[in-house]
Amino acid sequence: MPNFLANFSLRYLRPAAILCLIAGAAGLTDTALALTRVEVYQVTVPLTDRSEGSQSAAFEAALKIVLIRVTGHRSAGEEAAFAPLYGNARRYVQQYRAVADSKEWVAFDGAAIERWLTQNSQPLWGRDRPSTFVWVSVQTGTENGGILTAEDTSELKQAIDTAAAERGIPLVWPTTASASTGGGSPADLGHRMGAEGLLVGRASNATMAASVRWTLQFEDRSSEFSGPLEGVNRAADMYAGLFAASGAVAPVDIEVSGVADVHDYAIVQAYLESLNFITHVSVESLSGDSVKFRLTSRGGIDSLQHAVTLSGKLQSLPAGDNGVARFQLRR
Fold it and tell me: Residue 239 and residue 122: Cα distance in Å, rounded?
């Protein structure tokens, strides 16, 4: 139905799309993003006692971890630009409670923090993030053929998991069965397990004193570095550099083709609205199977191009004669 949208009144398109989203939720599930949604605004931190001073220190420590996750800057906890946030950490707390081992769970107001970051032109990295398959071979101190697995409890494995949680990047580890039976290269196994990135480590042992050499691969990028936790931190640095949106909010026009009916429109609309750096989506015009959208976005068209590359929802096309960025809905 290539002319369906062209003959469909804009006046009724938005309500119809909403109804389609509600009634066709099962259909939209098949086209969901291949990313992992990470909880970035909830943190568990040590709490020395129940005094007012300890409580304030815990809130500040928790907010620093949140800012590292949300901005993608591993040094965010020490940057002077965020001092106004840290000095008022309590005002951003929504819930908190004591948990085991003298710790406290804290949940922050994510919308308020994102508004502050936007108003102060700070980077903002959304909750949908690429997952990374980790394959670490260890010379001594492990079973399972010297490969760290999801079931492993070694000091090195636990430290890697903790660092990944603090940076807000999801990891995928091989199981004991998959590590022992082989079944292809680490890249093949990671792909079958649904990971987007690959982190391969070679460790001298399974402690934090280990010498570890890392190779990180993501799309067409590859890099090498050393250090027990550098693999996780460099992966987070790379992803944040690609997908954290910076800059002021500004309008961006795009054109999406291959939108044959209201269901297709609902898919595109839902996808665009799911991107954290886009604050508003509206339809400007319809022509055949193409829809021109106006987005209110941080980071301009570059942020959208990066997101599209990762999700595979839309395919980039050459810009039109008017310079408007063009995309094709993928089936």
Answer: 16
Taking residue 202's Cβ as centre, other Cβ atoms within 10 Å add up to 16
- CA dihedral (154, 158, 164, 167) positive or negative: negative
Q: Is 258 left (phi over 0), alpha (psi -120 to 50) or beta?
A: left
Distances (CA, A) of 5 to 23, 93, 154, 186: 19, 45, 57, 45
Identity at 211, one-letter amino acid code = S
Higher-pLDDT residue of 198, 115: 198
* Tokens matching residue 141: 């101190």
How many Cα atoms occupy the beta-carbon half-sphere of 237 within 13 Å? Answer: 12
Overall pTM surpassing 0.90 (yes/no): no
| Neighbour tally for 274: CB within 10 Å | 18
Alpha-carbon span 317 to 309, nearest angstrom: 12
- Length of the chain measured in residues: 331
Over the stretch 251-274, which tens digit does the pLDDT of each residue have?
Answer: 999 999 999 999 999 999 988 988
Tokens of 86: 């840290």
Res. 6: pLDDT tops 80: no
Higher pLDDT, 127 or 62: 62
For residues 54 and 20, is the Cβ–Cβ distance under 8 A? no
Q: What pLDDT was estimated at residue 299? A: 76
Split at pLDDT 50, 70, 90, the class of 36 is: confident
The CA distance from 47 to 289, in Å, is 57
Number of CB atoms found within 10 A of residue 302's CB:
13
